[in-house]
Design goal:
The chain contains 10 helices and 21 strands. By secondary structure, the chain is an alpha/beta fold. 47% of the residues are buried.
Length: 402
């Protein structure tokens, strides 16, 4: 006979673990699945300082796991992939996994996180070219830096966080440069659009630079500012940022040996001759997209939201999708920070308990406190992964109420 639980959670990352912890407090029977050999998700690789803030994701994951210790009704199965969630009339959902078999659950929470977008430029398949997330896992989780001298292509938020992390691991950075413009990198927008996106990260820049960074958001000022961009780059996060240089290809016979760069004029067009800069390794930083494949077979209502990383499920304020009993939390519902995913996971877990046990005064006040915490986590986030994410979250939540 198929095992039955109250709640099945797909993903033991920030959101999944926080939801499991909240459900454990409400005495729910919960099974969490994660295909990675260790629980913690992307938190395990997050360990850096941005400005005055310090964030140690593995400590956060450790505290969440500790909160589950001795809670016999919650179990975490790692090394197990959920490959289908099917609706079973009256019994809730059938959750199909490999290799742990199937179970049925009254509610399912999809907390599958986000995946990285590629930057396909000539030479990107050479050994020694990695995504920033892969380098983060190698260096912070497995303690193996990807090389000695590296260059980051792409100016997304993760470029700065991961540059700071790998600098602590002893990597010598050659800089962060712009990704090329092509059909394959259309998801990044044009170079002026990327400069504009960076202007919204002004709060993370040193105070003397903030007015200049904000100026990048003003089309009339941009040619002036970029025309005076320091040739030596701007020092941030243990590296130098070259917003006036673009990578055009990675060069090497057996592995990545050099990157070809071009200068950009004040309108973002390549100008002057190209030059080669020797490297040990190259990181690509093309942004993140929510992982939502499990939702499609259930016909969940989705919407296109560039500010949240692409195609995301439409969620009620409780985190429920258009399919009754199926919930989403964390980056699978839109790309935000680790702290937001934790707060969102807890709130969604409490809402799921509420849907199963009905209203109780202590649960209602726990939900209110969790809602408050989520607003604070969003307000205090040091950056948005994509410009306008906070505004988009509140717009979508208002839409879902109407
Ligand atoms: C490469 C990368 C780097 C990031 N770095 C930062 C950072 O430095 N700072 C920051 O604030 N945010 C960062 N983020 C954003 C990150 O998504 C959030 O910080 C946070 O970890 C999201 O929590 P989550 O629980 O939604 O997802 P995750 O923490 O990603 O957890 C999702 C889990 O689901 C599991 N999973 C997925 N699909 C399945 C399946 N079908 N079956 C079983 N298990 C499955 C995965 O193995 C994973 O463990 C990063 C994201 C990525 C992708």
């Amino acid at each position: 006979m198929t095992e039955r639980v109250d709640v099945a959670i797909v993903g033991a990352g920030a959101a999944g673990l926080a939801a499991a912890s909240a459900l454990a407090e409400q005495d729910m029977v919960v099974r969490v699945f994660d295909e990675y050999p260790e629980a913690g998700g992307r938190l395990l690789g997050q360990h850096y300082r941005l400005g005055r803030r310090r964030w140690n994701g593995s400590e956060v994951a450790g505290a969440l796991l500790q909160s589950l210790h001795g809670r016999g009704q919650v179990s975490i199965a790692v090394g197990v992939t959920v490959y289908e969630v099917a609706d079973v009339a009256q019994s809730g959902f059938l959750v199909r996994t490999h290799p742990a078999g199937n179970l049925t659950a009254s509610r399912v929470l999809v907390a599958t996180g986000a995946g990285e977008n590629a930057i396909p430029l000539p030479g990107w398949t050479l050994p020694g070219v990695l995504t920033v997330g892969a380098a983060q896992v190698m260096s912070v989780v497995h303690r193996v830096p990807p090389g000695r001298r590296g260059l980051i292509i792409g100016t997304g938020v993760l470029s700065f966080a991961i540059a700071a992390e790998l600098q602590e691991a002893g990597v010598e950075w050659l800089g962060i440069v712009m990704a090329p413009e092509s059909d394959a990198t259309a998801h990044l927008g044009s170079v002026p659009e990327r400069w504009e996106a960076l202007s919204r990260l002004d709060a993370a820049a040193p105070s003397w630079m903030r007015p200049i960074v904000r100026g990048l958001g003003r089309p009339a000022l941009r040619p002036f500012l970029m025309g005076r961009y320091p040739r030596a780059g701007v020092a941030i996060a243990g590296t130098h940022v070259y917003l006036n240089q673009m990578a055009t290809r990675v060069v090497g016979s057996r592995d990545a040996a050099a990157v070809e760069l071009r200068y950009l004029d004040g309108h973002g067009h390549p100008t002057g001759p190209s030059r080669l800069i020797p490297v040990d390794f190259v990181l690509l930083s093309g942004g993140l997209s929510p992982i939502t494949e499990l939702l499609d077979p259930l016909g969940v209502k989705m919407t296109e939201s560039p500010a949240l990383g692409g195609r995301v499920p439409v969620l009620s304020p409780a985190g429920e999708t258009s399919h009754s009993g199926l919930y989403v939390a964390g980056s699978a519902g839109g790309i935000e920070s680790g702290a937001v995913a934790v707060a969102q996971g807890r709130l969604t877990g409490l809402h799921i308990a509420h849907s199963l046990t009905g209203s109780r005064p202590e649960l209602v006040s726990a939900i209110e406190a969790a809602r408050q915490k989520l607003s604070e986590a969003r307000r205090d986030a040091p950056f948005e992964f994509n410009p306008g994410a906070r505004a988009e979250v509140s717009r979508l939540s208002q839409d879902s109420r109407s």
